[in-house]
Design brief:
By secondary structure, this protein is of the alpha+beta class. The chain has two helices and two strands, in the order H-E-H-E. Helix 1 runs parallel beside helix 2 (43-54). It is 34% helix and 12% strand.
């Protein structure tokens, strides 16, 4: 049996490393007046790292899918 090709290499090792890079890229917004909002599941680990890098507050936004 041959290994399955999962496609190209991912851009980030994980969500935490993605948050670190995003936080570094957003240094213009660093400071105590900044609030970072994370969406539960995959977004919170990213938002936590961004908030940490920016020295900002972190909060979570809980959203629901709306059905037509």
């Amino acid at each position: 049996m041959e290994p399955v090709d999962s496609g190209p290499d991912p851009l980030f090792a994980d969500r935490v490393s993605a948050g670190r890079l995003l936080g570094d890229a957003l240094q213009l917004y660093a400071g105590p007046g900044t609030i970072v909002l994370g969406i539960p599941r995959g977004g919170v680990p990213v938002a936590a790292e961004v908030a940490h890098r920016l020295g900002a507050e972190l909060d979570v936004v809980v959203a629901r899918k709306l059905r037509a």
